[in-house]
Each structure stands twice: as structure tokens, then as C-alpha cells.
Amino acid sequence: MKFSLGFLSLCLLLACNKNVEKAMIQTPITTNKSSLTYLALGDSYTIGEAVPQKESFPYQVSSMLNDQGLKFSAPKIIAKTGWTTDELQAAIKAEKITETYDVVTLLIGVNNQYRGNSQATYRKEFKELLQTAIGFAGGDKKHVFVVSIPDWGVTPFGKGSGRNTTTIAEEIDAFNAICKEETLAIAVSYIDITPGSRNAATDASLIASDGLHPSGKMYSEWAVKVSNSVAATFK
What we know:
Elements: H1 5-15, E1 25-26, E2 38-42, H2 44-47, H3 57-67, E3 76-79, H4 85-95, E4 103-106, H5 110-114, H6 119-136, E5 144-147, H7 156-159, H8 165-185, E6 189-191, H9 194-197, H10 216-234
Parallel strand pairs: 2-3, 2-4, 4-5, 5-6
Antiparallel strand pairs: 1-3
């Protein structure tokens, strides 16, 4: 199969720094059965590309929940830079997870948008992933939290990509509309971080050193929203 220039650009867009490779599967540092458990499913935004692991949003969520008196072990993460919905599905199947988790988050879709993939295909595969997430939560929809797709078009990389940033924003909104519709249709929590991600257009502190991915500061903003939603579920 011939690789197009656009696909090669994807590798640059969502890998950026090949000297800092993130593992495809990040297993919790500790395993304490008396602790609550958290599974995070996604792509580069879930592993925290270009920031220390502790600054990724899943790790900050766990830390914030612990500060609120909920004892969570470190999250298990299934995510990799560049993944689309179908690639996340394949990785989940390969992992062969049999256990369930107290909390599951799902953030996926930016690479579907970037590659120009079909929105209809995204809807189908996202719905399947959502059901998978519910299964990992033991069938409890209240313990699944979907996070919206951020807008990479406002970043320095996005502005210099040669793409129309207005079009990027419109496409991100379209994918998020699908994500939100399918999530709320089955009464799962939807956490909208997209408007906040657009603040990076004028606030460089929200962007990591690679000029593309969120900084720990932006991830902290996401983590506040997610942890508050999770904490409310456990009250």
C-alpha cells in the first residue's frame, strides 16, 4: 500500500517526538485490591504525549480522587499516539482483559478526523467502543465517562499545518456531535473539554513543548471535570 503525504503528516502530527515513546499498554504501578480501579481508553491525549506520566489526565484524575477521599490505584491505560477507533478496538481485543473496573473513561476520534475517515464509520465504531467500556465497568453506565475531542487546530502545529483551522474546528465539532449524541442516548456521562482546549489559541501555557499536545496544565483542567463527575457518582 502506498503511503500518502497526508499519512506521513499524521505520523508527525501525533507522534511528534519519537525519542519519547509511550508504551501501548501502561499497567498500574501498584495493584491493591482494596483500591478502586480505573481504566482509561484512548489515544495520545490519554497517554499524555509530550508530558510526564503523572501529568496525563488519567493520572491527575486518580490523584484528585484520592485527594477527595476516594482510594484509587494508578490507572490502567490502553492508548497509543495515532490510534483511530478501529485501532483502539484491535488493541483492546489483543489485551484480552477479563477484569472489570470501577471507572472507565473513553476519549477517541481525533485521528479519525485527521485522516479524513468517514463520520459514519466513526459513529459505528464509537458506539461499539462505548458498549465495550460499559462492559469493562461491569455493565454500570454511571461509571463510564466519555471525554470530548479537543481542537488541535488552535495549536502551533495546527496553525502551521497548511490546513484551514476553521475547517478543522468544524470537523472536530462534527465528530464531537456524534460522540455526544451516542453517549447521551444511552445515559452515559459526556464531559465537554473542547471549548477549553480552544483557549490554547491565545494561551501558550496550555500547550506541551511539542507544539501540538496539551500541557499538564490543560490536562489538569480536564482532570478537574472528570474527577468531579466521578466523585459525584460515588457519593
